[in-house]
Amino acid sequence: MAKEKSGYYGTRRKFWSWGYEGEDNSQDEIRTMRDRVEQRLGIKDIEVLSDPTLDEIELYPSRIKIPRTLEDFCTTEKWDRVVHTYGKGFKDMTLIYRRDFKKAPDVVAYPRDEEDIAAIFDWCGENGYACIPYGGGSSVTGGFWGPERDAFPGVVVIDLGNLNQILEIDPVSRCARIQAGILGPALEEQLKPHGLTLRHIPQSWEFSSLGGWIATRSSGHYATHLTHIDDMVESLRVVTPAGTIQNRRLPASGAGPNPDRMFIGSEGTMGIITDAWMRLQGRVKFRANASISFKSFYEGAKAVRQITQAGLFPANARYLDEQDAKFYGAGDGTDSVLLLGFESADHPVDAWLERGLEICKDFGGVVKQRAGTADNALETSRSGPQGNWRHQFRYLPRLMHTRAAMGIVSFTFETAYTWDRFEEVDTEIMRRVRTAQKEHLGGGIVCRRFSFLYPDGPAPYYSIMAPSTHANSLEAYSMLHDVASDALIELGATITHHHAVGKSFRPWYDKEVDPLFRRVLAAAKTELDPKWMLNPGLIVDKPTGLKIVG
Ligand SMILES: Cc1cc2nc3c(=O)[nH]c(=O)nc-3n(C[C@H](O)[C@H](O)[C@H](O)COP(=O)(O)OP(=O)(O)OC[C@H]3O[C@@H](n4cnc5c(N)ncnc54)[C@H](O)[C@@H]3O)c2cc1C
Question: Where are the alpha helices (DSSP H) in 112-235?
Fold first, then answer.
């Protein structure tokens, strides 16, 4: 039977920001955001650029003529090329507001199944085109920035959005086989009637995909225990230019290196993840949560460490320094704030919260808001400091573009390092960033929080904002980005805990990972992607002298 034609799925998204077309921010929202930024940075009269329109964007003509056999699911239409050019990082947003789309792909493909993916691989292989897998498009690290224009005769983005179904559910083992292009809301919607949830909720949940989460090792809802998506993967299916790999469904195995781990975090360089058996959770029935304030960030961090090492495994343990707490409405700017939450589908969790609060009090923590099973903890978590934080966390992505529109440098970086060096490393990171802000930009803000926690160390998340102009914002961003990245690597931290390496962090990733391991990755890629067409420039480079045959 002939397959139906395929193209972009569902409501169109804005190419310049977060959200759907037509969901524009009101002038009031923009003004409030601008006033907030002016107040935080102590500057005035910021000029806010207007949102770009499709008509204003100029593209190079597509270099590719789509063959008849592929035209049912490939396109060279302008909107499709524009929306697939950039991710959602600060650099992406700034180039979008500069109307700079020199890197637009030539073709966007919307495969309907694995056969279509294999056909694209064959076609790209024969013609020397680069292939860029695309999930939700929420990368903030240049995950699908195309190669330089003259490096390949053509660039094809493969958008997996039509692979968006749950294919099988195994309620006994509590797992489901899920297609990789599904976005967070559709995934949970399809699991809900079965009383199950994946409960992987990165801030980008609304517009990021299962395949993207796996390809980038994203971190979601759980602050401890199941932090990364890695541990929720039971088995993967991956289509590569060399063939398809289907790993075996197993709860655990000691049979050699885990084959799934070859692809988890491979950032689209080794093949396209088409579906995965994922481990699920029962839907949450019991909750207990509290917000606790600390006079000193480092004293509070000691309480957080002890909670993590006590085996309590809170689902939520966001620990915000005083500025981060103020920005998110969880504090007044004088104290650091811990938002602590426990949850279960099976049993009350009040005792865990009780023990967590005892530990906080030992380190001078003051409980500001608290609720357990008897007090409707869900309601409480949606009001007061916890509710304010939750609201801002969900709402702010819709305003992410305004920083670029204002020409203000604003970005985040995240890492992880061990507790034994926590104060020393954190102090030095803060010092280096503040010094660079002061010396080169006349000032700025850096604040931090813990978003994920391990018994042997935290995963701190730093937010940076600094004054700049529309003309120099990218240079200012690059300078601060490099200072922060150098600090992480020199101080023995990781270049990323969950945002992935992408093109943004590639030079520092090379310093973090042993050269022999990188050669092993290159050898694996040569086997799986013999023509080196998948995501050129990410994670590994083609070994010098490697001849591409065919
Ligand atoms: C507002 C905002 C908040 C964010 N919050 C979080 C957060 O809380 N936690 C977190 O971890 N990250 C977060 N991120 C970063 C981003 O959402 C994650 O990296 C996410 O996992 C990317 O998923 P995606 O489907 O959007 O992938 P994309 O951005 O489409 O792609 C990311 C990379 O994966 C590759 N890829 C995509 N799909 C596949 C596939 N099926 N097979 C092989 N390769 C593939 C792409 O080629 C690319 O290299 C945030 C980003 C934004 C903009």
Answer: 114-127, 184-191, 210-216
Q: Which domain holds residue 89?
A: 56-159
Q: 269 and 298 share a domain?
A: no
Q: How far apart are CA 205 and CA 199, in angstroms?
A: 10
Checking if the pLDDT of 50 tops 70, the result is yes
Contact by Cβ (8 Å): 496, 414: yes
**Model ipTM value:** 1.00
Whole-angstrom Cα distance, residue 234 to residue 261? 11
Does the CB atom of residue 164 touch ligand 1 within 6 A? no
Is pLDDT at 110 greater than 90 in this prediction? yes
For ligand 1, the distance from its centroid to the CA atom of residue 376, given in whole angstroms, is 34
- Is the Cβ atom of 209 under 6 angstroms away from ligand 1? yes
237 contacts: CB under 8 Å, gap ≥ 6: 244, 245, 246, 247, 273, 274, 275, 276
> Quick check: is 185 in a domain?
yes
HSE, CB side, 13 Å, CA atoms: give it for residue 289.
25
415 CB near ligand 1 (under 6 Å): no
Over residues 137-146, the mean pLDDT reads 94
Cβ of residue 52 lying under 6 Å from some atom of ligand 1:
no
194 assigned to some structural domain: yes
Residue from 319, 461, 462, 477 carrying the catalytic annotation: 461
298 is catalytic: no
Q: Is the CB of 272 under 6 A from ligand 1?
A: yes
d(CA 221, CA 229): 10
CATH number, domain with residue 174: 3.30.465.10
Give the chain's mean pLDDT: 95
Q: Does residue 133 line the site of ligand 1, with CB under 6 A?
A: yes
* One domain for residues 138 and 186: no
Confirm whether 241 is domain-assigned.
yes
pLDDT in tens, 444-464: 999 999 989 999 999 999 999
Based on the fold, state whether residues 212 and 266 are members of the same structural domain.
yes
Residues 271 and 345 both lie in one domain: no
Among 132, 159, 186, where does a domain finish? 159
The domain that holds 348 is classified in CATH as 3.30.70.3450
Pocket test for ligand 1, best of 216, 272, 411 (most atoms within 8 A of CB): 216
Number of domains in the chain: 3
Ligand 1 centre and the CA of 212: distance in Å?
5
What is the Å distance from ligand 1's center to 201 Cα?
Answer: 12
Nearest residue by C-alpha to atom 22 in ligand 1: 212
* Domain final residue, candidates 114, 132, 159: 159
- For residue 225, the one-letter residue type is H
Report the share of the chain in percent with pLDDT over 90.
91
Residues pairing with 452 in the sheet: 459
Sign of dihedral through CA atoms 100, 106, 108, 113?
A: negative
Q: Is the pLDDT reported for residue 126 higher than 80? A: yes
**pLDDT, average across residues 243-247:** 97
Q: Whose CA is nearest to atom 23 of ligand 1?
A: 212
Whether the predicted pLDDT of 256 surpasses 70? yes
Same domain, 170 and 277: yes
pLDDT of 308 reads 97
In a shared domain, residues 292 and 390: yes
- Note whether residue 313 is domain-resident: yes
What's the gap in Å between 459 CA and the centre of ligand 1? 18
pLDDT at 406 over 90: yes
**CA of 198 relative to ligand 1 center, distance in Å:** 17
Whole-number pLDDT of residue 550: 58
